Amino acid sequence: MKSAAPRTRRTQPRSPARAAALTESAERATDFLRAVAHPGRLRIICALLGGECSAGELARQANMSPPALSQQAAVLLAEGLIDRRRSARSVLYRLAAPEARALADLMYRLFCQPPRVAATRRGQPRGIPR
Description:
By secondary structure, the protein is mainly α. The chain has a domain at about 30-110: Arc Repressor Mutant, subunit A (Orthogonal Bundle). The chain has 5 helices and 3 strands, in the order H-H-E-H-H-E-E-H. Strands 1-3-2 form a 3-stranded antiparallel β-sheet. A hairpin with a 2-residue loop joins strand 2 (about 80-85) and strand 3.
């Protein structure tokens, strides 16, 4: 009996247009990651998950001084990840890019969400003494 040869995945030759699109996507992703690659900027994005808030409230939620918030928010504004508007005497910030929301959701699930506690047969959570 003949043994079947292992199948190999055929790859299509990459067209110049496909290579250019891949390069463009990689550049956009790199710019995005550079913009959020700072603890303060990540805290700003996570704090804005709850919705629009004033600069003072955002500084408190992100645990930043107002000058530090202004400096880090400027980077996020320049990249189009957040937006701001004036309302009377307040400056209000909100998430502007869906990528920023998706990143914050992912970061929350990976690093902030409390771990699920598996139940034992008796219904008691593991790790909690009786």
